[in-house]
Amino acid sequence: MPLLQPFSDPVLIMAIAMAVFFLAPLLFERIRVPGIVGLIVAGAVIGPNGLNLLDRGPTIVLLGTVGLLYLMFMVGLELDIHDFNRYRNRSLIFGTISFIIPQIAGTLIGLGFGYEIFSSILLGAVFASHTVLAYPIASRLGIVKNLAVTTTLGGTILTEILALSVLAIVAGGYEGDIGLRFWLVLVASLGTYIVAVIWGVPLLARWLFRNVRREATIEFIFVMAVLFGVSYLAHFAQVEPIIGALLAGLALNRLIPESAPLMNRIQFVGNGLFIPFFLLSVGMLVDVRALTDLDALAFAAALAAGVVVSKWASTKLTELIFGYTPEEGWVMFGLSIPHASGTLAIVLVGFEIGLFNPTELNAVVLTIVVTCLVGPWAVQRFGRMVAAQEEQKPYDAGAAQRRILIPLSNPATEESLLDLAMILRGADSNEPLYPLMVVRDRAAYTEEEVAEAEKVLSQAVIYAAGAEVPVVPLTRVDRNVASGIARGIAETRSSMVVIGWDGAGMRRSGEIFGSVLDDLLTQTKQMVVVSKLGHSLNTTKRVLLVLPPLSHRHPGFFEAARALKVIGGRLGAGIVALAIDSDPARLEELFKPIRPAAAMEFTRIPGWGSLTGELRRRVRPDDLVVVLSARRGTLSWDPSLERLPGQLAGLLPESFLIIYPSEADTPLREPVPDALLPRGLEPDRIVKNLPALTYDAAIRFILESGGLFDADRQEKISRVLVETQQEFSTELKPGVVVPHARFRGIEEPIVFLGTSQEGIEFPRADAPAHLIFVLLSPAERPQEHLEALGDIARLVRTHETVEELLEGRFDAFGVNGGGAGNAR
């Protein structure tokens, strides 16, 4: 039996609310019902229409409104902008379908129950509007970046805008004010508002992040001010505040990376406090006693059934159009079925202007409760299946977890280095970060310096804890700093090193950065990212990538390219690649299959002499310049690379990264695309139209084309290859053979290619050979030999590729004019 008076003591009210937030999800999840549903049911039980423990007064309404705005803000903040832009047509189509079908269904049901046209159209808007109430469940299951979920979240923006626009139009028409002036004001105010938020908020945020001292409290308060300020200004654009909250999240999306400590604080406060208050307030609206007669019950049942069926039809149609799985379709349904914020706004305005009566109001409220129960259930049940499907997809080496070592020396730059490392690590990684302090072994000062190093490391631990990133701090005492770092890499088995550089100080002739960094590059094979950051990474608008000639031939190219695209993707920044004396189209094809997807454009730079002037012309204050460099002596190394860091430090007072790709063999190396000739095959090692020869003479003829070996060395190599042919077959497929062997004295894999129209007979081959690849590899590196064989096998996988090679159309593979020419 309800209490006569609800509790009014604010401390007790908060105590009851916190107890509900703690107990309700626990109890309902034990019976396999989403915790969100438990909060709604709890609100109905303790609310004014239940036990009357709490009144839905100004305090609950305030906190519930804050929770609703917070929920919509998080949707915009966590939406994958790159995937949304890439597949925005899907979101637009779904948003349109999810509006039109329910709008028509609601209008027809209204007319069927005898309502006037304005009331029926407004009832259709009630059907169309939805709130992604179950978003926290999708987030917890890790399926937010699933394409179907991205489509739903993106489509929600359009659906809500259209549904609330119908509200504004119906209200204006019912009151007799829907002329030309009404339309002009609506379009102008809404358009101005959207442009001001999407353009102005990032501008203000970038200024703050660049110029105001970094402090967790200040950053969080700024974000909250933006959220509620933008939401309030939505009234002036004649739309509901939830649209403003969604736009605020989209505006800040690129500036708050998902791995940043600030994002963790936003999620923690929302999921732990504000969003539960919103769910509690929704449950308090339920009043089953208002539906006492059969007509009211029939109307409520028709509304609930109409909403469920129309939203299901919308998602099912979208699923069929885009080929989503049935489980993904049900998740879309679960996200788009709940009716709450926009629905309440529409029905309350309709009630105030006389289009709805109390019976319809309560029927809509009951529909809200039904949909808020169905939606989370569907996402919880089918979201688990979608998550399992995601895990069963083919292995993506780009998603491999990285173990990152971060040598620290300057407390002023440790946060920026940790930010960069957290971006490269990824939000889903289980690997900890390894911040390292190396103390020089000097007897008089070592103990004091170790204590100081531990203070710096403690700050790193605290900062990373704000983002819930595990950290393993390391201290090493060594006479040589570079050796201490190298020892730390070996002990932790790190695959990447992120290290800072101040860009200052005099360096001896022949040095790039200074003794420590230069020695580190010499002593290690892992990927090294040298960072000089003059502004916060989250304010980056664009990445300018410098690609030296032959950088794509480097064994660590694909791993470095993945790291670059991860940086661009998580910063929401487009990538402009400056390809020095290279073919932009070929590089674009190489980058395209590398995950994650990122917006990239490629421009050819004639040579190193043009680079500095090109950078001076292109670079903006909010750019991040990234150089894909190379260690001395490697294939893509050039003396200009050693001068480039100093030139950048003098040219750009802002931010740049120098990435040195890994030199170590790694099973995570990206497969070479089919349309790329194998590493080690240069144009002058290609012999077209071999004459009619025996197989041993053909091998010798091909080896002569490169001019790499003296007569004795060539004869020894030829003899080994010929003997190998007699022992076992080297035929990859009919018409393609690969004589191959490993030799001492060869520093990297070397590939030759000979083509024969007539065909040459090889021992143990099923057919005459028309393509003859000769592969020579270092004796000490069998892994590279196997990878090179794999590259050749991939190249000749299709009949079309074999025909192109045989006909000498090498331009399709990035080789101009073929190679050594026709054999005579």
Walk me through the structure.
Residues 394-399, 505-510, 665-675 and 816-820 have low confidence and may be disordered. The chain starts with 9 loop residues before the first helix and ends in an 18-residue tail after the last helix. With 824 residues, it is α/β, with parallel strands linked by helices. The strands form two sheets. A ten-stranded mixed β-sheet has the order 3-2-1-4-5-10-9-6-7-8, with helices on both faces. Helix 5 packs antiparallel against helix 6 (117-128), helix 9 (180-211) runs parallel beside helix 11 and helix 13 (294-322) runs parallel beside helix 16 (358-392). The protein contains 28 helices and 16 strands.
Low-confidence stretches: 394-399, 505-510, 665-675, 816-820
Q: For the residues shown, what is the average pLDDT?
A: 80
Taking all Cα atoms into account, the compactness measure Rg is: 32 Å
β-sheet strand percentage = 5-15%
Q: What is the helix content?
A: 55-70%
Oligomer: single chain
Distance between the ends: 104 Å
The description of the largest β-sheet is: 10 strands, mixed
Structural class based on helices, strands and sheet pairing:
alpha/beta
Give the strand tally.
16
Q: What topology, given as strand order, has the largest sheet? A: 3-2-1-4-5-10-9-6-7-8
- How many H/I helical runs? 28
